[in-house]
Amino acid sequence: MEVAELNSIIILFLQIVSTHSDPSNSEGCWDWWGYGSPNYANKLGIEMADVKEMIDSLRAINVALVD
Prior knowledge:
Layout: H1 2-6, H2 46-66
């Protein structure tokens, strides 16, 4: 964290909510095996789309701060 702060690097800490229904993810793990969708590892996957949205939001904030 200190290195990121000293170098103005933003770190995203993603959190996955555990579920006990279908699909079951009782440990709240990142979908690295395809329990949620066959698109889990590409840009059409729910988690990947969420990460892209977060990055786009951070970029928009950065642009607003620079302007």
